Amino acid sequence: MVQTPVKMLERVEPPGPVGTHCILELYGCRSELLNNADYILRSLRNAAQRAGATFLKETFHCFEPQGVTALILLAESHISIHTWPESGYAAVDVFTCGDHTMPETACHFLTQAFESSQYSLHSLRRQPPQTITATARTPLVLAA
Amino acid sequence: MVQTPVKMLERVEPPGPVGTHCILELYGCRSELLNNADYILRSLRNAAQRAGATFLKETFHCFEPQGVTALILLAESHISIHTWPESGYAAVDVFTCGDHTMPETACHFLTQAFESSQYSLHSLRRQPPQTITATARTPLVLAA
Questions:
Q1: pLDDT tens digits, residue range A81-123?
Q2: pLDDT reported for residue A18
Q3: CA A21 to chain centre
Q4: Alpha helices, DSSP H only, in A68-116?
Q5: Predicted pLDDT at A128
Q6: pLDDT band with cut points at 50, 70 and 90 for residue B138
Q7: pLDDT, tens digit (0-9, with 9 covering 90-100), for B102-125
Q8: Where are the alpha helices (DSSP H) in A1-144?
Q9: How many helices (H) and strands (E) does chain B have?
Q10: Which of A101, A113, B25, B29 is the residue whose CA sits 20 to 30 A from B14?
Q11: Closest Cα of chain B to A5: distance in Å?
Q12: Which of A77, A78, A107, A116 is catalytic?
């Protein structure tokens, strides 16, 4: 009996959401902007929106005598900022997953928002396993 | 009249706090741990403590059907984690400032906490300007 070769279904791994982690140094910023928590949070939310990401939650802290840390949680990951108004410096990172997001756009927006005279931006590809489905996750609204 | 040269005070720039940003990929983790928000938050707080950092605030979110994002705000910067329990994967970053902190120690703790079978760790030096004083900032407890 001649065996018919079984046709194997080719398993194509989904490409997975591309995770890009941007490390941004902002120099020469306007100091008062870096000490204004309301302005900072508003700017991060705007940056997320411009990156095509979905804002979910935030937390922040003001330091003595100056400086602010703010973290915003996105459906696609997060944005953080740590500011040193006395030096016009802010350390930022923008991490987003998914092909629809543009983390570099968020970085460029923040560069302008804080009137930075000089900046450096490094974009790193995160290395998720290929088994991560390309399907976006839904934030569970009822969760804390 | 012979002018006496004015002795200029030499301005010595403080070295500034060294900012280290660790990018950690955790593979082959125990899935149920990656979907347990309480365990995740506890682990991040423990990791911060082992790094010599001071926990201040946290926020987190649970995704549908699974996965957690948690951000903890430290006096010395932050730790973030984004988990994909279905793939046993977590994307972590640990950013700390100050010579007294050991972010790699936090990373190694998290590797064990989530029973990761494989991981990759990249440590980046952040580039604050030298004008940042080496003096640690005090969190303003009264702030929101």
A1: 999 999 999 999 999 988 788 999 999 999 999 999 999 999 9
A2: 61
A3: 7
A4: 103-113
A5: 86
A6: low
A7: 999 999 999 999 999 999 999 998
A8: 31-34, 37-50, 103-113
A9: 3, 7
A10: A113
A11: 32
A12: A77
Considering the candidates B43, B97, B107, B116, report the single residue annotated as catalytic.
Answer: B97
In whole angstroms, give the CA distance from residue A74 to residue B34.
Answer: 18
Q: Answer yes or no: do A91 and B126 touch at CB < 8 A.
A: yes
Give backbone dihedrals phi and psi of B95, rounded to 5 degrees, phi first: -120, 120
Distance (Å, whole) CA A101 – CA A5:
44
Chain B residue whose CA is closest to A138: B64
For residue A143, the SS3 value is coil
B128 closest CB neighbour out of A89, A122, A143 = A89
> CA-to-CA distance for A116 and A30, rounded, in angstroms?
7
State the ipTM, two decimals: 0.82
The radius of gyration computed from the CA coordinates of chain B, to the nearest angstrom, equals 20
- Give the integer Cα–Cα distance in Å for A59 and A41: 9
Choose among A41, A35, A83: nearest CA to B59.
A41
- Identify the pLDDT of residue B18: 61
Asked if residue B73 lies in contact with residue A60, where contact means CB atoms within 8 angstroms, the answer is yes
Q: Which of A21, A65, A129 faces B89 most closely, judged by CB atoms? A: A129
For residue A20 the two structure tokens come to: 């890009």
Q: Is the distance from CB of A106 to CB of A51 less than 8 angstroms?
A: yes
Computed over every residue of chain A, the mean pLDDT equals 84
Contact B132 A87 (CB under 8 A): yes
